[in-house]
Amino acid sequence: MRTEPADSDLKRLFVHNRSLPDSRTYAEIERIERDWIVPLVARLEETTPPLASRAEWVEALDELLARESAGTPAGHYLAEKATLRQMTSVVAEFAPDGLTEAQNFFPAIPRLPIRAQMAVMRVLIDEFGCGNLQQAHSQLYRELLAELGLPLELDAYLDRTSDETYAFLDVFFWLTQRAPHLEYFLGALAYLEASIPSAFTVQARACERLGIAHGRYYTEHLHIDTFHRKEMQVAIREYEAAHGLDPTRLWVGALLLSELIGTAFETAVERAREAA
Ligand SMILES: [Fe+2]
Ligand SMILES: [Fe+2]
Questions:
Q1: Cα(3) to centroid of ligand 2, in Å?
Q2: Mean pLDDT over residues 49-62, rounded?
Q3: Which SMART domains match (predicted)?
Q4: 6: left (phi over 0), alpha (psi -120 to 50) or beta
């Protein structure tokens, strides 16, 4: 008799984080995070030289973004060489992100000072299409999935998503709800919003080259995340004004996200190429 492989910790973490947890599930969330994200952040903290000010954080972030703007071989492949099937595979890999876009940011709001809340809310309102379904980023992703003949329900993807993608999704639940300091979240989201206008040129180019009509999910981000990048710096400035700031924690959050999203993307392209 064939037995199904057990769900990985990171998949279970994603499912638990989206459920109404009882004390047992909550204990398992804490256990998985303690074995995974807590040591990852501790390692980054140990190996990252401390930053002295918000200005140093802005400088460090700009340098990281400039380095990453050169792209990667995987990005170049997807933009210029991938087949429609391979691009479809990458779109499917990130469906659990696209279909739930920005939902896992909300628990950060009550932990922020009011002026920082407003800046992050302006980002979130855009993510949800200013209340207009046709503009909501998850809806733009649904349209892309539909064009590629892929399922529109999250459940259809849970068994085929890689741990590398789950790590990228799971980290935000920890950052917003259990990380001891919110600066990690602010740094992580500031990095993500700032990196996307360059990173998504890859998928936007692939859509254009392959004749995919619903690439708007990507092109919309090229535009709107240039504003979100600024809002996140406003949020950080307001956080500092109200609470003071440890800029090293922002930087650790940015490095964490850079590592997790970079690995998820590389893995997605690798899997697409293997399957072809
Ligand atoms: Fe978005
Ligand atoms: Fe955004």
A1: 41
A2: 98
A3: Haem_oxygenase_2
A4: beta
Say how many Å lie between the CA of residue 99 and the centre of ligand 1.
Answer: 11
Report CA(25)–ligand 1 centroid distance (Å).
Answer: 29
- The domain of 236 spans 51-275
pLDDT digits (tens, 9 = 90+) for 102-139: 999 999 999 999 999 999 999 999 999 999 999 999 99
Gap from CA of 196 to ligand 2 centroid (Å):
8
Q: What's the CATH number where 150 sits?
A: 1.20.910.10
Residue 42 lies in a domain: no
Taken as a whole, the chain contains a residue count of 276
| Residue 126 to residue 247: CA distance in whole angstroms | 27
Please tell me the number of the ligand nearest to residue 224's CA: 2
What's the Cα-to-Cα distance from 6 to each of 3, 9, 19, rounded to whole Å?
A: 9, 9, 19
Say if 12 falls within a structural domain: no
Provide the percentage of residues in the chain whose pLDDT is more than 70. Answer: 98
Instruction: For residue 105, report the distance from its CA to the centre of ligand 1, in Å.
Output: 11
Is residue 262 domain-resident? Answer: yes
Q: What pLDDT score does 2 carry?
A: 47
Q: How far does residue 123's CA lie from ligand 2's centre (Å)?
A: 6
Q: Give the count of domains, the chain.
A: 1
